[in-house]
Give the backbone structure.
Amino acid sequence: MRKFVNKKLIVSLFTVLSSISLTIGFGEDQTQTVWAQEDVSSIESTFETQIDSDKTVKLSPNEQVSILIKYINRLISQEEEVTLESLDNSLPEPTEIDEQESLTYYHYTIENVEEIATVQLAVENSDTEQEVKNALAEVEFRTLEMVPLKQDTVEELQEKLVTDYANEEYTTIDAARQILGPTPSVSYLGNYDIYHYQDEEDNEVALMLINNKVVAFNVINQDNTLTEQPFEQTKQQLDRLSHEDGLNRQEIVSIMGQPHAVYYDSSQGIVTYAWYSDVDPDVSAVTYQFAYNGIGIGLMYN
């Protein structure tokens, strides 16, 4: 599985779930299939009740895990119990079981010639039922290569996000991919999807989506040595900066240096620059926020 950045992603995610009425299970040839009813608009989505239908549609590994992860996490968000046993017909045998103190992590692989999907379920250790506490997955598209994004390409998408927000619209994944191109890797966490890219400076570039709408766009420097550097500003200087509004991007970069991460939050129209350091225990993260129109909001630190 991809090791996700352990810094807090500054995004506001809203819950928008489509009602999908599907039943997933393995056939005799161990190929995962889905049975879809002609009119499914009024039927609750479930993996446990087979829907009567003469048609069987085979899903790709990417489609399978996308539906599975959203299904599991939707039930968890509604405080409904999901057990490992209830998912037996939806998953192959685990490829790895990693038992920790309170949780056991079950890893699964579903693949075909073009795609390989890995699923991780975190299951509560219990003497009774094995309750699933969270689920995530990653899919790699074997026919696609990671092509580094040019800086102009990244800036073009940023401008697209700002323009669409000004028009009270969300940028769609189709529009984003017209700029960035196809992604060789996508992750599913909860109700949202993450499309992974890299730029020419080896930064992690990620699109975060809900219902195919871009809710966040992140550019994160993957050089871990950056956190080993102390901030040049003292806590007192940062405190003064936190009370100074309206700095533009050039001014804050001249003070703090190039940010370690940039977060575009399209649900609130806020851009966040972030700097991190593990050296000073009093200040580990500094952020400066701008509105999408470029107006400085202010500095925060912890």
Remarks:
- The first strand starts at residue 22 and ends at 26.
